[in-house]
Amino acid sequence: MKIVILKFGGTSVGSIEKIKKVAEIIEEYKKKNYKIIVVSSAMSGVTNELIKKSKGISKNFSDAEYDVLVSSGEQVACSLIAGRLIHKGFKSRSWLAWQIPILTKGPHKNSKIHLVNKKKISDYLKEGGIPIITGFQGANKEGRVTTIGRGGSDASAIVLAKFFKAKRCVIYTDVEGVYTTDPNKLKKAKKIKIISYEEMLEMASLGAKVMQPVSIQDARLNRIEVEVKSSFVKKPGTLITKRSNIKNDKIITGISTTYNDSKISLVGVKDKPGVAAAIFRPLSKNSINVDMVVQNISANGKETDLTFTIKTEDLNKTKKIIKENKRINFRKLLLKKGVAKISIIGVGMISTPGVTYKMFQALANKRINIQVISTSEIKISVLIDKKNVKKALEVLHKEFKLDK
Ligand code: ASP
Ligand code: MG
Asked: 82, 131 in Cβ contact below 8 A?
């Protein structure tokens, strides 16, 4: 049985006209003799509206009721898709997560799917039906409705692909695929034809919003090929697959940027064991996400400087925590808003020497100062002044031949 999972995002089912278009896409797969499992998100904007309503009722709206409320958007979208397919003469029906059931564990609002009961859906597929399944929802062992976190219908689709052993999951959205960098920031950005899970994971974690990072990790672990494409235009999208399927000569696959970063430096910190831990422990306890970290070597062996970055929205809280931290001593605290992180990503850098140098030289040629550097196996990130981001993007995009 050739099973394919088709997932439609909020914008793809954003209006009646768009839902009719979705039914046409499903019809095309049906003609090619696929067994199709459809997963849908809520019509765009609906989930936000529902959340607003809950806030109008109470500032402490019950988490369990939140799940019942916000998951209802998916129910509407699924029944409309199924209704359109029935109208066209196909056998189709909507399935709410609890009817299957898709079982979750963990707290309301943020549950995780751990089991999908396949029986009913498999039978329905054998009868030639097209099941339209609500993304984002689940049910817990008490039989209550749960949700799996905002944007969760990607994860639902990948989990269904895993349980039904689908070779491919197609994520339909409002963009044509994954781009070398944000096309809104750089006109020359190009659609990437094929990208590895690892690269996609870095791109998504660093702000490319096409897919939720957790779902990419899940696809990687289960070797599910994911195709991201637009439901509005008929063009090939981006294929996310394993590294060995990719043959290309590019060192870098994409460039990502984050804008709302702040830099914090503690000057003159005692250079002894336990100090870094004493600084970061209260930050982590307060859910402040520390990103890049550098510590200078101390010239005299007694004192050192420590610099790290956080999201600007956490700046005031971070400042307060550091000032109130009795376990650390430092001479000066420097805070700087308006910094940006720019990262080049590509598995090609593993086997190519000199990539770091190339990046730094390209930035230097444009007189862009690098403030902090961090690297991983397939990524090099630098912190720069926010006002230089556009220039940096342009020069790096060109340097690594992504313009072509
Ligand atoms: N409708 C849900 C949300 O807006 C789930 C999703 O879109 O994936 O978060
Ligand atoms: Mg969505």
From this structure: no
Bridge partners (DSSP) of residue 293 are 308
Residue range 38-73, pLDDT digits in tens: 999 999 999 999 999 999 999 999 999 999 999 999
CATH top class, domain 255-399: alpha beta
**E strands within 67-185?**
92-95, 102-105, 112-116, 130-134, 137-139, 145-147, 168-173
CB count within 10 Å of CB 190 equals 16
> Which residue's alpha carbon is at the smallest distance from atom 7 of ligand 1?
151
Mean pLDDT across the chain: 94
Using the mean position of ligand 2's atoms as its centre, give its distance from the Cα of residue 28 in Å.
Answer: 24
Centre of ligand 2 to C-alpha 33, Å, is: 28
Nearest CA to ligand 1 atom 2: 151
Instruction: Name the CATH topology of 3-174.
Output: Carbamate kinase (3.40.1160)
Residues near 345 by beta carbon (within 8 Å), at least 6 away in sequence: 199, 202, 203, 206, 252, 253, 254, 255, 256, 378, 379
Distances in whole angstroms, Cα of residue 389 to Cα of each of 110, 178, 208, 369, 374: 34, 20, 16, 11, 17
Whole-model pTM? 0.89
Beta bridge partners of 334: 265
Ligand 1 pocket, residues with Cβ under 6 angstroms: 10, 41-42, 47, 73, 135-136, 150-153
Instruction: Name the DSSP letter for residue 331.
Output: S
Nearest CA among 288, 384, 295, 294 for reference residue 336: 384
Residue with CA nearest ligand 1 atom 6: 151
How far, in Å, is the centroid of ligand 1 from the Cα of 71? Answer: 9
* In contact, 185 and 236? CB cutoff 8 Å: no
For 147-166, how does the pLDDT look when each residue is reduced to its tens digit (9 = 90+)?
A: 999 999 999 999 999 999 99
Pocket test for ligand 1, best of 39, 136, 212, 228 (most atoms within 8 A of CB): 136
Residues 156 and 136: their CA atoms lie apart, in Å, by 6
φ, ψ of residue 176 to 5 degrees: the values are -80, -10
- pLDDT band at 208, cuts 50/70/90? low
Taking the mean position of all CA atoms in its chain, how far away is CA 36? 25
How far, in Å, is the centroid of ligand 1 from the Cα of 100?
20
Q: Where are the domains of the chain?
A: 3-174, 255-399
Residue 392, Cβ density class (10 Å: 0-12 exposed, 13-18 middle, ≥19 buried)? buried
